[in-house]
């Protein structure tokens, strides 16, 4: 069951500072995860990072992403670049493909649409039939142009539709997680969304915990939310099940879904 993390801070940090360098970095979690719960032993079916570079001021920030359908540890160029690329906010993921779902670049989180960056850690039970009613509301064009035939790609389309309609990003992930859980009981739905307010330039990071591991840590260089703590620091706080974590303007709020 994939692993992911999101980070938002007051100034740029290297991707490596969260993704590859810590004692229990996402890189380590790709081959030695500690809390998989839903089965699977490694997260070797691909990886990705989506990030904001620039100062964070309105208009001065751009979004980028990098994904590969290979184990992170095999991409030496990425491991090198991660030490040089700095970002004020980012989402990274390593993937363990759900049985029956393809291994391809388009199936790797995070998915990105402009400055909206999304990851799903888990599985939708009974997919695809269980999502049929919810997906029926999506425009045909959206369904025909999904990046991959996976549960995560459909969840991303559902979240994006809310964002396009002007819904608050935290409300968007909470609504999708709740409605999918109702339609497909037993699903594991750790969603993670990074967005940027176009007017202020301020980022929002929203994460759900639904039957999967999630922790967060606040520090001087920002807030990190991760499937598994990146190191033994006691400042990591485990998130209870069925919670929504919202990071805005340096503060963290945890509320029931
Ligand atoms: N079900 C999703 C996929 O196959 C996520 C996988 C996971 O969390 N293990 O991409």
From TrEMBL:
Keyword Membrane: no
Pfam annotation, one family: GATase_6
Reaction(s) this enzyme catalyzes, per UniProt: gamma-L-glutamyl-hercynylcysteine S-oxide + H2O = S-(hercyn-2-yl)-L-cysteine S-oxide + L-glutamate
Keyword Hydrolase: yes
Enzyme class: hydrolase
Keywords for the protein's UniProt record, in alphabetical order: Glutamine amidotransferase, Hydrolase
Pathway field: Amino-acid biosynthesis; ergothioneine biosynthesis
E.C. code: 3.5.1.118
Chain's role: Catalyzes the hydrolysis of the gamma-glutamyl amide bond of hercynyl-gamma-L-glutamyl-L-cysteine sulfoxide to produce hercynylcysteine sulfoxide, a step in the biosynthesis pathway of ergothioneine.
Protein name from the UniProt record: Gamma-glutamyl-hercynylcysteine sulfoxide hydrolase
Species: Actinomycetospora atypica
Gene: egtC
């Amino acid at each position: 069951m994939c692993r992911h993390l999101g980070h938002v801070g007051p100034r740029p940090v290297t991707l490596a500072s969260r993704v590859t360098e810590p004692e229990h970095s996402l890189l380590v979690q790709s081959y030695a995860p500690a809390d998989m719960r839903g089965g699977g032993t490694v997260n070797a079916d691909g990886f990705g990072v989506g990030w904001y570079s620039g100062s964070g001021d309105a208009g001065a920030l751009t979004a980028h992403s990098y994904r590969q359908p290979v184990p992170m540890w095999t991409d030496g160029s990425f491991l090198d670049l991660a030490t040089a690329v700095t970002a004020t906010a980012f989402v990274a993921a390593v993937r363990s493909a759900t049985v029956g779902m393809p291994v391809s670049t388009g199936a790797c989180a995070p998915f990105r649409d402009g400055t909206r960056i999304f990851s799903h850690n888990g599985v939708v039970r009974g997919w695809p039939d269980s999502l049929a009613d919810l997906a029926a509301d999506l425009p045909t064009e959206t369904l025909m142009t999904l990046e991959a035939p996976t549960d995560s790609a459909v969840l991303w389309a559902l979240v994006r539709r809310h964002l396009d309609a002007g819904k608050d990003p935290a409300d968007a992930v909470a609504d999708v997680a709740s409605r999918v859980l109702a339609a497909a009981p037993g699903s594991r739905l750790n969603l993670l969304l990074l967005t940027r307010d176009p007017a202020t330039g301020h980022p929002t990071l929203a994460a759900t915990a639904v039957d999967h591991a999630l922790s967060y840590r606040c520090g001087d260089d920002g807030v990190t939310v991760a499937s598994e703590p990146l190191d033994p620091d006691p400042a990591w706080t485990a998130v209870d099940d069925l919670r929504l974590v919202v990071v805005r303007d340096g503060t963290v709020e945890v509320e029931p879904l």
